[in-house]
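Appendix B.2, paired examples.
Example (i):
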Amino acid sequence: MASLYSSVNLTATIRFLGGLGSTTFIVSPLIHLIIGIAMSKASASPIVPRAIPDYTTSEAGNPFVEGWYADPDTEIYEGLYWVFPTSSYAYDEQTYFDAFSSPDLINWTKHPNILTIANVSWATRAVWAPAPIFRNGKYYIYFGANDIQEDEPAEGKIGGIGVAVADKPEGPYVDAIGKPLIGDYHNGAQPIDQDVFIDDVDGQAYIYYGGHSHANVAKLNEDMISIGTFDDGTQYKEITPENYVEGSQMIKRNGIYYFMWSEGGWQGPDYAVSYAMSDSPLGPFNRLAKILQQDSAVATSSGHNGVFHVPDTDIWYIVYHRRPLSETDGNHRVIAYDRMYFNDDGTIASIQMLVKDDFANGQMFDWKTYGGDWTVANQRLTVASTTDARALLDTNFTDVVFDATISITDGSGDAGLVFRAANLSTGADEFSGYYACISATGSVTLGKADTGAWTSLGENTMEVSVSTEYQVRVTAVGSEISVFVGDLTTPQVTATDESFVGGANGVGVRGAGANFGNVSVAKAS
């Protein structure tokens, strides 16, 4: 859908009417105003946001909330976007759900403990993958619990998929039936990783679920707390596509049903999202392609997704979990989102995990600092004047186009972009990598640091004014490195160097204070 306004950076305070009164929020870049009432899914409550978040990714950075979370599912309730994830810890510590809501997909409010095992008499551990839905004036969450195995129900052990209900999206949710809704294996499918979908054709609700490489679909009765029966007298139909492992998700677009799932091992590099298309909610679902997979420059183990459809548009986002590159604990997962595009024939294009941060949420979740006093203010990453300091993202780019805005706020030193960096520490130049900077004394410099040794690779003079913001770009392709300031067509400095081929990206200062904004790190094409 074409934007109603030009794609420029906007900051404004907007009020829209939600069911609970007016709400004030800050509009981030690329949000355009419309008025419209629609439903994100046939299941969502009918009050939707009146602002369109038209982004390429989470422009304020991924992860978009702080903490270890996985298995996110989504809904739009009462004018807000909602994300419901698993708390990603050891199984015995997975005893509760938190949720997050946002008016704009940038600024998120945490709603802790919306459901805990205190409100589910049969659940003790491994509370997984909440699937939200709205119907009959109530909010429902379907969840897996206890990690039930195939032979355990016969031994009297209880587990499977439960259902809880609340009067508000943020709960508190309480167990609706006092036992699992699906507590046994059917067609070899472990009762976990459910998604609930209400078809806009006839209002029929379906639950898609399954682990251990089998997927089922079942009808939900109108009461949403009991399993229905198909015309042939069965209750569970197997719909397992090729390579299915877990993480069922159903969406509908232009009359086509898209079944999505995760394949590979959830802690491994092969964890990914694939999909199928069908003209029926019951399939068949024949695997078409893998659309989301790990990127060794950005994150690993990307999978188990939900989807946001921005109402009255063709804007879609895939919301998923992934593991930061430096994390080795299998449970250390975070939630992220990226834009999901459809091709002209209705197929889904391969999804690229982008790296951006415009600091519009006032946070720096994925940044690790080395020296200095770093804060976020006025949509800029800020460091007070110091001898030497850096803030780095958990990335590992080789050929790269790296952009940011930089303004020196005080001091007589320099501020710039750090790339292909490793061996990070708090000492002066005590890392291995490149540094492209502007100086308050009027220069543009490209150099390399090698655990304490600094070598200048090139320098040029230009007028640099304190408190003036400059756009700085680095392109590094193989051994060829160029630094641009303001003019992105003619480099200020070029050099050839083969010392470092890949590493982290970030920003730094030496003898100065600075503000950094609109960070974008992308693979050089």
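Example (ii):
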Amino acid sequence: MPRNTHDTAPDTERGDGQPDSATGRPNTAAQPGAWRRARWVRVVRPLAAVLAALCVTALATVGTLRNTVLDRGYYQHVLDEERAYDRLYDEVLVAPEAQPVTRSLLARLPVPESVVTANLKTVLPPATVRELTDEQIAEVTSYLRGEKDTLSVSVDLSPVLANMDKLAEVYLGGLVSQAQGRDKADFPAAVKRIDAALDDVAAGRRPADLPTVDLSDRAVRDISKLLLSAVPEDQRTSLRPQIEGALGVGDVATALAAVGPHVIGGRAGAGADEGEQELLRITEGGRWDVVKDLDSGGVYTGPLEEARGFTRLALGWVYPLAVAVGALSVAFLWLTGPRRRLRRLRAVGWSMVAGGLLTAGLFRLVQWKADGLWGTAPGSWPPSLAVLVEDLESTALQTLTAAGASAALTPVAVGALLAALSYVRRRPRAAQSLSTRGRTGMLAGLSAVTTTAVVLGVTFVPAAASGSGSEQALCNGSARACDLRYDQAAYVATHNSMSTTADRFISPLQDGDITAQLDNGARALLVDTHTWERPDQIAERLKVSEFAPEMRDKITGLIDEATPTEPGLWLCHAVCRGGAIPLVDTLRDIRAWLDEHPGEVVTLIVQDGITGKQTESAFRKAGLEDLLFTPDDDPKAEWPTLGKMIEDDKRLVVFAEHADGPAPWYRNFYRYGMETPYAFSSPEKMSCAPNRGGTGKRLFLMNHFITSGGGSRIDAREVNAKGFVLDRARRCEAARDHPVNFVAVDFANLGDAAAAVDTLNAGRRP
């Protein structure tokens, strides 16, 4: 038999490292890679694999930190995820326990605290808070990355002061411009004029342009006492006759000049300059040093300094060292691996897998030990603030560990793929038998099957899971509500809906505008219609004031002279100069919202300061006539179901507090409905006693807000809580033997009145 050619090969060509038959020594000269089997290589390879795994862990960990705790976008993501800016207004600043914190902040603003808190979202809107917060985040992350040597976190208060100036211009612009005889207000000139008057008073001169006013005897005594309180005691007796005499004839200017040198003295000369310097002193140059206040409040920044040392080490040394050592380790594993190149991937792949698993374990350990990493909130903090901080910490930790898990997954997946490739010896026999064209066709067929399965799954699986392919009708967001009559269902009603922060009303009673209120679940709007106030309207309001009759006339004349009326129909809260939005434009917004939400029924209850004819004209101009529902002439008649009203597309019900027509759809609310009192000064005084409309009506309005010198954010958060609303609604329903229909609230975005209304509707039967 012929011998196999391999059998005839001399030993010297085998290259197997076995002893040569001629010399008896290992055959290393014929095998260039024989050094891979050297003892030192076998010792160093495991060490290189361990180093490679550790370097993968270091790179994944540092990369995760760089993209999270060292990146400003990470913090804004956490703040947005927890709705931190909304919760700041809706939970923290309205909590009674937050008042000391609020006062500490507001002490830096040169305005009374009550003015700021009443107009909080106007003076300090969420957009401004976000901007200020982002600035601080940038400072902290720069410090942690080692780009700055000291932690300097300060808040620029100029945006807040700018918002205050803007607010003043909106509501004082007309007054100042008319007094100056200009089309547009010149505020610097007005301030200069005030400074000149102060200079006169400081010098004991009677300031010009101050009118005389008629004062009652009691007012003369009270004002004299107030002015003399700033005068040294030894000089009060000599000044009293002069001050009381001047005030007795209404000469306020002379009375002010008498006490001016004692009250103002030489300070008036500096005027605006001193005021500016005082503002800079209060705000420490126009910026609030946060670090100083944190340290003084017991919240130390030492942990940030420790974290900075760690991050500088990680970025400055660990990361570049891991890159260098990892590259060398992988190169060594590759060069010292088996002769077959695919097999060389095995050690590299398992090292990456091990590094990924170590990374995942490290972040799991961080999550497990997180309670020990966070500090506790100071006991002086209000509970709502402590809860917000805890939620932010929890979300930050979850985001960090999720990012770490994602970073760990990459080396695990890549390493597993490399390791799997290292075990492939040859192409499968079936694949070897296919031509190139056949393998291409098989791949195309598999791709088509996969694509079809994905498309069919996305299309049909959701419909199958829902149990029905047809849409179910919803009425005011609920299928069950379609069977409830209009007078059986409950609705969230926003009190003074037009008086909003968004529309820059003075002392607003809601935050979002009317469209936002509808978006957030309000289905009844309590609004006030007016024309711009005239002198006789001002006089009418002054009748309930403490001013003497002669002074009322004087004030009316001054207002008529300084603030002329603006034409048109408006939605105002009492006085239009304190905030006003156009009636017709607002009705058009409501029309647009109803068109976008065809399954919703909305009610307007109008405190009508304009005539029924004017109201009818406004609704016609807004294009709402086809949506208006006309109630039955008989107030005792049953109302249709919400489903029927939606089917007929008559989805807007409009009531008036005073008028009754002439339009058939414009009915007097108290013919059809009854209410509770509305002038509650505290939550514990809320009652269900009959008020306007008496009892026994088909519609029931529960006034559910606190009026104590205006709306109260703090009380709104308490009374709008779901449990509080449900408890009072059930008490009132028992007292009136009728379900509550309209739950009228201030600041509807606080608390959870909408959830309470949902619960009421869920328990009602057609």
